[in-house]
Amino acid sequence: MRTVAVVTAGLSQPSSSRLLADRLGAAVDRALRLDGDDVHVEVVELRDLAHAITDHLLTGFPSGDLVDAIDLVRRADAVVAVTPIFSASYSGLFKSFFDVLEDGLLEGKPVLLGATAGTARHSLALEFALRPLFAYLRADVVPTAVFAASEDFGTGGAGALSHRVERAARELADAITGRGRSGPVDPFENPTPFSELLGG
Amino acid sequence: MQFGIFTVGDVTTDPTTGRTPTEHERIKATVAIARKAEEVGLDVFATGEHHNPPFVPSAPTTTLAYIAAQTERILLSTSTTLITTTDPVRIAEDYATLQHLSDGRVDLMMGRGNTGPVYPWFGKDIRDGIPLAIENYHLLRRLWREDVVDWEGRFRTPLQGFTATPRPLDGVPPFVWHGSIRSPEIAEQAAYYGDGFFSNHIFWPASHTRQMVGLYRRRFEHYGHGSADQAIVGLGGQVFMARTSQEAVRQFRPYFDQAPVYGHGPSLEEFTSQTPLTVGSPQQVIERTLGFRDYVGDYQRQLFLLDHAGLPLKTVLEQLDLLGEEVVPVLRREFAALQPAHVPDAPTHASLVAAGTPVTPVEVSA
């Protein structure tokens, strides 16, 4: 049984961060099941833990449901972490949760990063804000991070959100099962079959 | 079992009056509190050590010696002695002197402090916290147990042919506790030497204290000092009492809400359910304290924190009356009835002398 903890810091109910988190969680679940694994995906809504997280910052110890949330992340085979982008970076609540985790808790743990914002202008916050944070925490962050602007929920095509979600989920599943990542496809060795090209 | 109080020595504004005591008032209040602790029949008074505002106890042996001169029975201790940033030679000298002046009414609790910049202020590196605690304490033990010490380590200038004076009273060094909130290395250190282990207890949930004390007990047995249930355990505790629990909560809430350590965080009700803090009647304090034994086993020392968060001296003295008259006599009786015969009391100077700790007296040459 593989456990995947999905941590989401969206504030509104429902939030687009939760929407993205659920899509990522479901995609990881599918990818692992394809590999023949039994999967348990559990979501942690940081909004529900906001007071407990602040209390932990002040007292130094976790209380109530925060104990279980931290324990879930500790036990999980992988973590999906999703935050709204506020003022050019992750939200304060998102950062505070990762601040109160004990040292080394994420070390070597496969992590998939996701973020949401109103427009795609914020998308690189994933790369310049979230990725360094998780590098500091020595997490094993998969190469594809998934950003969803509001418009992404209504856009199809080659770069559609669903494609990015599937690719990231496949990378996380591979990181969990320890399968070597497949290298880039050589288009001369393995040309895309024309039926696929024709099919779009 | 020993019962007592420990003070942090903070100068904190009383949130109900807006008044901040002067350092002079706080130091004098500390002495008054220690004297009162003896008067109401407590066994131990321990002071913290800090080197920054808003704390006053930077020179604990000065204060403890002054208290020793004004008391007759109470045991004087620390909570904690900064083994990381204080030269072990100074600790050996200061506390051996205090031991002589107080006729053996001294023990110590080693700790690492709560303020990062204290390390650089004393020429140390906070990243060396644990190695400093280990090396310095090992030297301290030798200074008290060997008349002439040759020594070389990482953190202090070497010693060649050094004798720490005065030698410990009756050739018996003070008993040492090691205090820690969360470092397993310190529980391991206490177990290795067969010293006492003191769990701060008051800021963290019981499950954490159980884990730390459990580790210490297991390793105490591993190192051959006795069975796990014979290890020497102390606990902190934090109480505020009134005739009724409603009255206690009403009086304490403004202090809790503004307290430097946990103020503006969890509610009083949440914190009392999550940690050993007990705000209520003397009977409630008795029941809660007896319950500590359920998760740490039979233990030897219970210290309460009473004088913090800006509580005025008058209130602290009233709390001591309640503690000494109504709580501790019952706890003594109840704990004594529960404690099996093979579980020892905490060592004292008298018991260590009687046990004949093998230390040769210093030879003073002309």
Protein model, in words:
The complex is a heterodimer of chains A (200) and B (366). With 200 residues, chain A is α/β, with parallel strands linked by helices. Chain A is 42% helix and 20% strand. Chain A has a single domain (2-199), classed as Rossmann fold, CATH 3.40.50. Chain A is built from seven helices and seven strands. In chain A, α1 (16-34) links the parallel β1 (2-8) and β2. In chain A, α1 packs across α6 and α2 packs across α4. Chain A is globular and about 60 Å long. Chain A starts with a strand and ends with a helix. With 366 residues, chain B is of the alpha/beta class. In chain B, α1 packs parallel to α11 and α10 crosses α11 (313-338). Helix content of chain B is 43%, strand content 15%. Chain B has helices spanning 23-39, 60-70, 88-101, 118-121, 129-145, 184-193, 206-222, 245-258, 268-274, 282-296, 313-338, 349-355; strands at 2-7, 44-47, 75-78, 81-82, 107-111, 149-151, 159-162, 175-180, 196-199, 233-241, 278-280, 301-305. In chain B, the strands form two sheets. In chain B, strands 1, 2, 3, 4, 5, 8, 9, 10, 11 and 12 form a ten-stranded parallel sheet that branches. In chain B, strands 6-7 form a two-stranded antiparallel ribbon. At the A-B interface, α2 of A face α9 of B.
Rounded to the nearest angstrom, the distance between the terminal CA atoms of chain A is 36 Å
Percent of residues in β-strands of chain B: 15-25%
Q: SSE order of chain A, as H and E? A: EHEHHEEHEHEEHH
**Would you tell me which CATH topology of chain A applies?**
Rossmann fold
Q: What proportion of the residues of chain A is helical, as a percent range?
A: 40-55%
Rg of chain A from C-alpha positions?
A: 17 Å
Text of the CATH class of chain A: Alpha Beta
What composes the largest sheet of chain A?
7 strands, mixed
Radius of gyration of chain B: 20 Å
Strand percentage of chain A lies at 15-25%
Question: Taking all residues together, what is the mean pLDDT of chain A?
Answer: 93
**Oligomeric state of the chains?**
heterodimer
Q: Helix- and strand-based class of chain B?
A: alpha/beta
- By DSSP, the count of extended strands of chain B is 12
User: Low-confidence spans of chain A: pLDDT under 50, at least 5 residues?
Assistant: none
